[in-house]
């Protein structure tokens, strides 16, 4: 008997899932040993759905998600509600669930996992982080015998696309965002991308899996987006041999009592492996005690690549069902919580427009010293009224670095703090 899939949502990702199931039906059946077919598709407006058989469409998502003949529910609506209620209804009706919904998993993954454990069904979500890249399964399964210390990478395709266009073509922010939207990379509300909410949700999911903790939610993640990144920042990065990237960084603390989880723009030296990640591609480093440094790279956004990850999960569910098993998650909880961003050790790049007067450099150095921040290098550009001092700090607590910048901003010899950004090197 065929395994029946219900699709909730038929937008950029959902329409590609339907297409791939239909186009690859014979191959999938041979691979799994059971045919897979689409049993129904819940949409908001039937007259708007394109390229799918009209008889499969319904506006009653609850009825579809709980229909007795449905085996797997694929949720690709996005957002918190009604996605959460629909997933819980499906699980309650004994369906396994595949979702690409990072916002929901990062906000309330614990409830969903608990419900799936209780019902003895699968809950898979590979598409939710870094699109097509197999990343969550390696973290959960392949690295189950290792101890992960750090996960760091580019996990938002839209912002990487925008920053890449701004850097390599000198393109504007708004036009680059519009292109990313037209290519199907952006969230329904692109604020989620450009303000870092999407990357923060992904960082929370990564931290939970990497450090086996249920305590991390999107709200715990320190988040800065790219709307404050200016052409001056990009030029300043270039002058230093760097590019600007939005990174998600999840790191175990030295005392092993907490984790740091943050999303913010950084300057990366051009020889850093993440510096060469272009367009909407994603790349993630996982650093584990025994395995060492692993890098995962590929398409992080877009309908077809994301549908590939969704389909991989559907196949995993089908295989589990044939084997009469389910893969529960979240039973073991280290309880590690997130520490304050101020306690995180980072390095800053600071560009200052200063009065070109004797003693400026020593005054600036004194402010750094006041906060016990040591300066790694200093460069002066220009002369006279246009003098600019560019400083890079050694690693220091983020709170000390931000207090240093606050003091620089109000000093009378500093006309303007032209650019402030954290710096990440490969050795960090
Ligand atoms: N587009 C991408 O590159 C990626 C998207 N995702 C995630 O996949 C999910 C879907 O994203 P997209 O397909 O890009 O979004 P989309 O906005 O293109 O599609 C969502 C669809 O759900 C429909 N919908 C909304 N409420 C509904 C309801 N109550 N019942 C039935 N349908 C409803 C909308 O009309 C829309 O057609 C989101 O969780 C997103 O974060 C994950 C990875 C990559
Ligand atoms: N909007 C997201 C889509 C994939 O998760 C992105 O741009 O990465
Ligand atoms: Na993925």
TrEMBL record:
<comment type="pathway">
    <text>Amino-acid biosynthesis; L-methionine biosynthesis via de novo pathway; L-homoserine from L-aspartate: step 3/3.</text>
</comment>
<feature type="domain" description="ACT">
    <location>
        <begin position="349"/>
        <end position="422"/>
    </location>
</feature>
<dbReference type="InterPro" id="IPR016204">
    <property type="entry name" value="HDH"/>
</dbReference>
<dbReference type="InterPro" id="IPR045865">
    <property type="entry name" value="ACT-like_dom_sf"/>
</dbReference>
<dbReference type="InterPro" id="IPR001342">
    <property type="entry name" value="HDH_cat"/>
</dbReference>
<comment type="similarity">
    <text>Belongs to the homoserine dehydrogenase family.</text>
</comment>
<dbReference type="Pfam" id="PF00742">
    <property type="entry name" value="Homoserine_dh"/>
</dbReference>
<dbReference type="Pfam" id="PF03447">
    <property type="entry name" value="NAD_binding_3"/>
</dbReference>
<protein>
    <recommendedName>
        <fullName>Homoserine dehydrogenase</fullName>
        <ecNumber>1.1.1.3</ecNumber>
    </recommendedName>
</protein>
<keyword id="KW-0915">Sodium</keyword>
<keyword id="KW-0028">Amino-acid biosynthesis</keyword>
<dbReference type="InterPro" id="IPR036291">
    <property type="entry name" value="NAD(P)-bd_dom_sf"/>
</dbReference>
<comment type="function">
    <text>Catalyzes the conversion of L-aspartate-beta-semialdehyde (L-Asa) to L-homoserine (L-Hse), the third step in the biosynthesis of threonine and methionine from aspartate.</text>
</comment>
<dbReference type="InterPro" id="IPR005106">
    <property type="entry name" value="Asp/hSer_DH_NAD-bd"/>
</dbReference>
<keyword id="KW-0560">Oxidoreductase</keyword>
<keyword id="KW-0486">Methionine biosynthesis</keyword>
<dbReference type="InterPro" id="IPR002912">
    <property type="entry name" value="ACT_dom"/>
</dbReference>
<dbReference type="InterPro" id="IPR019811">
    <property type="entry name" value="HDH_CS"/>
</dbReference>
<keyword id="KW-0791">Threonine biosynthesis</keyword>
<dbReference type="Pfam" id="PF01842">
    <property type="entry name" value="ACT"/>
</dbReference>
<keyword id="KW-0521">NADP</keyword>
<comment type="pathway">
    <text>Amino-acid biosynthesis; L-threonine biosynthesis; L-threonine from L-aspartate: step 3/5.</text>
</comment>
